[in-house]
Design goal:
The structure is a homodimer. By secondary structure, chain A is of the alpha+beta class. Helix content of chain A is 38%, strand content 15%. Chain A has two domains: 75 residues, Winged helix-like DNA-binding domain superfamily/Winged helix DNA-binding domain (Arc Repressor Mutant, subunit A, Orthogonal Bundle); 56 residues, no CATH class. In chain A, a hairpin with a 4-residue loop joins strand 1 and strand 2.
């Protein structure tokens, strides 16, 4: 949990930001929604310093948003999985993405979100535009969108 | 706009966070949704240092999320209003609130969100639980909820 720099705010938004009010934290959670689970994969995806990543993962575990599960004994290695509490952050991540798609993606959405198994696009109200179902985190499938391009530095 | 510390991320979430990936910024935007418009009122609501507030407001204007409008000539005074681009952040603020209500509000939600004119509570899918309408930022009305209490320090 981050410091409470605004102790006097009785507000669920302020409280939520104590857990996820930091950019790397949100990007780590985003990666988890995209299926990333292991330290090295988060590190590669984010290009973040290892000590910063370790700190943010520790906080996310402490906050009950991730759980640490062993996947190897020698040497001991752990992976990080979203808990139910973490999965509940899906609308936060999704709404940030939708805003970015509309206002900061001149080449179109880098990523399309589809209703898994149905294929319909998911609209701003987290509802499948094809079948009308309200979708939850586990029912969303991400696909590359028209705005996705590998930057020159990575090519 | 914040620094791009992750230039190589082709991602609408990362892009959105360049605009709003900072706690004070999100709380300023929250206050704007609650009707705050003037510098002194933001300052009073947030208890934030004036130079920090001025900096964040400047960035929000520069990012096209707020617009500055004169409301007084002598001395010149301005108020800050959400633009359409800013109003589009409503689902982000709303989803943070819903997460906080569920996971960080032991006394219940500090704030209830109702469908203006209808009175129905707004569910997790930004839909009125009474009439079924999908609501936008302008159709949401905030009311004090059971979790609202004035902390001792402010009483």
């Amino acid at each position: 949990m981050l410091n409470r720099t605004y102790e006097n705010q009785v507000c669920s938004i302020a409280r939520a930001l104590e857990f996820v009010g930091e950019r790397w934290t949100i990007l780590i959670v985003r990666d988890a929604f995209l299926g990333v689970r292991r330290f090295d994969d988060f590190q590669r995806s984010l290009g973040i310093a290892r000590n910063v990543l370790a700190d943010r993962l520790d906080r996310l575990v402490e906050a009950g948003i991730f759980e640490r599960r062993p996947y190897q004994d020698r040497p001991p290695r752990y992976e990080y999985r979203l808990t139910e509490r973490g999965l509940d952050l899906h609308p936060v991540i999704f709404s940030l993405m939708k805003w970015g798609d509309k206002h900061a993606a001149p080449n179109g959405p880098p990523r399309l979100t589809l209703h898994r198994g149905c294929g319909g696009e998911i609209d701003d109200y987290l509802t499948c535009s094809k079948c009308g179902a309200r979708v939850t985190a586990r029912q969303v499938e991400a696909r590359p969108g028209p705005g996705l391009e590998v930057p020159a530095a990575q090519a």
